[in-house]
Design brief:
The complex is a heterodimer of chains A (556) and B (315).
Chain A lengths: L6 H8 L29 E6 L14 H10 L4 E3 L10 E3 L7 E2 L5 E5 L16 H11 L6 H4 L5 H5 L9 E4 L4 E5 L7 H5 L27 E7 L3 E6 L18 E6 L3 H9 L5 E2 L10 H7 L4 E5 L2 E7 L9 H10 L2 H7 L4 E3 L26 H11 L5 E7 L4 H15 L2 E7 L1 H8 L8 E7 L5 H5 L21 H10 L11 H14 L2 E13 L10 E2 L3 E2 L8
Parallel strand pairs in A: 1-10, 1-11, 15-16, 15-17
Antiparallel strand pairs in A: 2-3, 4-5, 5-7, 6-7, 8-9, 9-10, 11-18, 12-18, 13-17, 13-18, 14-18, 19-20
Helix pairs in contact in A: 9-11
Chain B lengths: L1 H27 L6 H6 L5 H11 L5 H14 L11 H36 L4 H15 L2 H15 L15 H35 L2 H8 L4 H32 L1 H6 L5 H10 L3 H29 L7
Helix pairs in contact in B: 1-13, 5-6, 5-8, 5-10, 6-8, 7-8, 8-10, 9-10, 10-12, 10-13, 12-13
Chain lengths: 556, 315
């Protein structure tokens, strides 16, 4: 999953609520639509980021903060439409001439590189740069490299040092033809090709972290200066416009200056005061400033849902949650509206594992199996019937706010249901390695998933029995359900470009999962779209995967 | 003097060694703190984690990992685990902001601390003394993060008298450097001014009753001269000692909250971010860097003691 980091949030939380009590007013929960309102071309905008990107090297970046610039600097063979909401999840050709041709067995992907492309430094782009790029991502240990090593033939051997190249990728510089052979059908592979880490870099680019001096790419913008942990500047890549790649905008601003600030309170204040232009969507808006923002800047602030799932995992291999009634009781009792309040409104309640915006999301018209209104009395009766009342439960949680508060609420709820629940709060940095370790084998606790790419299989990895492993396990509930396995075996190989044909099947599967109460889903995250009044708010795209689309930013 | 220097050098090496070992060991015993697992990401396989462990030498015995890290620190090749950047380059980049903060605030808190302490002692028991006592207590009791946030909110956000944090290098724009540093200097100084003025007041009152002060007065020396040359000079010894340690601690990354609240991108902020990520190499370097300054400034303090008090000899 794409990691959202929150270093600065810790500082912001420490800063007391000095701004509380200023203003009030309604909230704006709408998702903005695209469309230009006649802004001006050129100029400079300042983006503030509360957390520095993990890397500015495309083959290493894995956080939302690094994906935002990488997406518009390093165009992969395939990419996503620059659009709001569900449309933003549509795969389009990037540096490839068309979407890939997939063989009948789903094992071979064929693409052709566009002709006449050059990197931002003038070097011609060659088809052989693609296998080199993938090799580089593997060699420098990109956080998601298993998407390559698990599926591309020969990638695992290359990773293990048993091969000097990836046998499964063939590239012909003369024709631009690129053929990728997989070890097993993987429908989401087209999405893997659209990762910013698959964004081409020239053959020969050093196989080490180049965050200080990022390599050239092919995209509407390029890095013009970098100061690690302090900021970086993007300027328009003049050569990109002449390639005329359809559906990839060339950008409006001449320069985008990104400054890293350690204090999100100050970050929000600067945008509110129009001293800076963009509050990074990956940061948490300080609750103390929210009333003021909602009253004074309602025309330039919105909460935008992004495909993500927030849930409590319920380990089905250990008491009390190996008992279906105990799990159902949790799902029946959970007050999702209370969770929304704990998140200062940055959560949209849901009971479905597949979030809104992902193919297969059952939608609001389908009734949640355990209702949407909490029924504590019925849940207590279920716990009594299950015979699990009085069972000691350790609830695992992270320190950062509001996750800590979610777990506080949940622990209290479990106690009300009749369990003997106690919290175990772990440092954010080691939380997921801790609960993913077989030695810990947690009963229940906080978990989340933010999409790597808009594909249901990315979420169902967490329900796949095959993904249970002794360390770094992500199937925290340890679900190994034959029905789910069977459906995943059938649905996972469906190519990403044909996902809509199996939307109903995914939806049925998600309803089945909810009915089995393997997890207690409570919401989808919403992120802040918050600009200064210098920028055209309505015209700016908030992409479901890459958040603020900087190519759509324009001065009023 | 030579003996003094040699003794201090040996103690510095021992302190740095002990601190580096302790820091390194602390990170080894944190449950599930395996850097390989974090570097591999949430979706990694055990094979990937094992490969990273091999590449980075995490599969080596702890003592060997420690030696390798120390070797890299002293050869300037130490790389952070989280962002894989050269730690010494990062500290070099962050040091000017920390030095700017420490030197400016250090001067302010020393001058105002001494001034308020002196005034309090001279006016002991009167209104000025009581007012300064209350002010000192307020200063000591107010956490830096709260004071910083309040100052930023009212003076930078509401009134817009000061910039909303950030650091401008002195070399690139001196007036802007000053403009950006005033608020952090004042906020960081408040706590120290409170402490120093109380410590100095107490020392001054004790010294005023010493026999040699009475003798000086009996000799007909003016009250002003007695106060400045005899009382203040001797009372400053603990203040100098305190100042050097505090100043060294701030340079060595001690102003974590001030740097973070004002977004100065100094060494302290770097340390805070590295600790949050359990990134051992930068934490080790920053801790050793801080310890180095404390040891060196403590030696310099001893020299200043000898100048202030002729009875003290450097051995």
């Amino acid at each position: 999953m794409r990691v959202r980091t929150f270093g600065a949030t810790a500082v912001a939380v420490a800063l007391l609520t000095v701004a509380a009590g200023c203003g009030g007013g309604g909230s704006n929960n709408s998702t903005t639509s695209s469309g230009s309102s006649g802004g001006t071309a050129g100029g400079t905008a300042t983006v503030l980021m509360g957390t520095a990107p993990d890397y500015l090297d495309p083959q290493l970046g894995y956080t939302t903060q690094s994906a935002e610039p990488d997406w518009i600097i390093y165009t992969p063979l395939l990419t996503y439409r620059h659009a709001n909401g569900t449309s933003g999840g549509q795969l389009i050709p990037g540096l490839a001439t068309a979407l890939p041709t997939v063989s009948r067995d789903g094992l071979t992907y064929t693409l052709t590189l566009r002709r006449g492309l050059t990197y931002s430094n003038g070097t011609p782009v060659k088809a052989s740069d693609f296998p080199y790029t993938i090799m580089r991502a593997i060699r420098v240990n990109w956080g998601g490299k298993s998407f390559y090593t698990n599926y591309i033939a020969g990638a695992s051997a290359y990773d293990g040092g048993r091969a000097s190249s990836i046998s499964g990728i063939q590239a012909d510089d003369a024709t631009g033809r690129i053929t990728i052979r997989l070890t097993q059908p993987y429908g989401a592979f087209a999405n893997v090709l659209a990762f910013p880490s698959s964004g081409l870099v020239p053959r020969g680019t050093a196989m080490r972290n180049l965050s200080n001096t990022p390599p050239p790419g092919v995209g509407p913008y390029k890095y013009s200066s970098v100061s690690v942990n302090r900021g970086f500047t993007l300027t328009r890549n003049a050569s990109f416009a002449r390639f005329g790649i359809p559906n990839i905008p060339t950008g409006h601003l001449d320069t985008i200056r990104v400054t890293i600030v350690s204090n999100t309170q100050s970050e929000a204040q600067q945008v509110l005061n129009n001293q800076a232009d963009v509050f990074d969507a990956g940061d948490t808006l300080p609750p103390s400033l929210l009333p003021q923002i909602e009253s004074q800047a309602s025309s330039r602030f919105a909460r935008v849902p992004i495909p993500s799932t927030y849930y409590f995992f319920l380990n089905v291999t250990k008491p009390p949650f190996n008992n279906a009634k105990a799990r159902q009781a949790v799902n029946m009792a959970i007050d999702r509206e209370a969770m929304v309040r704990l998140a200062s409104g940055f959560l949209k309640p849901t009971c479905w594992f597949l979030p809104e915006g992902i193919v297969g999301h059952p939608g609001n018209s389908v009734r949640c199996p355990y209702g949407t209104t909490p029924d504590l009395a019925a849940a207590k009766r279920l716990v009594q019937q299950s015979g699990t009342a009085g069972t000691a439960v350790t609830v695992w949680g992270e320190q950062r706010s509001p996750r800590r508060e979610y777990v506080d609420y949940y622990t209290d709820l479990l106690n009300k249901l009749g369990f003997k629940a106690q919290e175990r709060i772990v440092s954010d940095t080691v939380y997921f390695p801790t609960i993913g370790n077989a030695k810990t084998d947690p009963q229940t606790g906080f978990a989340d998933w933010i999409q790597d790419f808009p594909n249901p299989s990315d979420f169902y990895l967490l329900m796949d029995g095959r993904s249970i492993q002794p360390t770094n396990n992500q199937n925290f509930s340890k679900v190994n359900d034959p029905h789910i396995q069977g459906e995943l075996n059938r649905l996972n190989p469906v190519p990403a470009t044909q996902l809509n044909s199996v939307a109903n099947d995914w939806s049925t599967l998600d309803q089945y999962t909810a009915s089995r109460a393997y997890v207690a889903v409570y919401g989808t995250e919403t992120m802040p779209k918050f600009f200064s009044n210098r920028l055209d708010f309505g015209a700016a795209v908030f992409h479901p995967t890459y958040l603020n689309d900087w190519t759509s930013l324009q001065l009023r | 003097m030579t003996r003094f220097v040699v003794r201090r050098l040996i103690s510095m090496v021992l302190v740095l060694f002990a601190i580096s070992v302790l820091t390194f060991l602390i990170f080894q015993v944190i449950p599930n703190g395996d850097p390989a697992q974090r570097m591999a990401g949430r979706l990694s396989t055990p094979e990937t984690v094992a490969a990273i462990r091999r590449t980075w030498g995490f599969d080596q015995p702890i003592w060997q990992q420690y030696l390798t890290t120390m070797k890299k620190i002293f050869s300037g090749e130490v790389i952070s685990y989280t962002q894989q950047v050269n730690v010494l380059d990062q500290i070099k980049q962050d040091l000017p902001a920390t030095l700017s903060l420490a030197i400016g605030a250090g001067i302010i808190w020393l001058v105002l601390g001494v001034l308020f302490g002196l005034l309090s002692a001279i006016r002991a028991g009167r209104f000025t003394d009581r007012a300064l006592t209350v002010l000192a207590l307020v200063g000591v009791s107010t956490p830096v993060f709260l004071l910083g946030a309040v100052a930023l909110y009212f003076l930078a956000f509401r009134v817009q008298l000061f910039p909303n944090g950030g650091y401008v290098p002195l070399t690139s724009d001196p007036p802007q450097w000053l403009y950006h540093m005033i608020l952090p200097w004042l906020v960081l100084s408040v706590l120290f001014i409170g402490i120093y003025s109380r410590v100095l007041r107490s020392n001054l009152l004790d010294t005023m009753n010493e026999d040699y002060v009475r003798t000086a007065r009996a000799k007909g020396i003016s009250e002003r001269r007695v106060l400045l040359r005899h009382v203040l000079r001797n009372s400053l010894i603990p203040i100098v000692s305190l100042w050097s340690l505090d100043f060294a601690a701030v340079i060595g990354g001690g102003a974590i909250l001030t740097e973070s609240v004002f977004n100065l991108h100094g060494v302290g902020q770097y340390a805070a971010e590295s600790i949050a990520q359990l990134d051992v190499p930068p934490v080790m370097v920053v801790v050793m860097f801080g310890a180095f300054f404390v040891v060196v400034l403590s030696a310099v303090t001893d020299v200043i003691f000898a100048l202030l008090d002729p009875r003290i000899r450097l051995t």
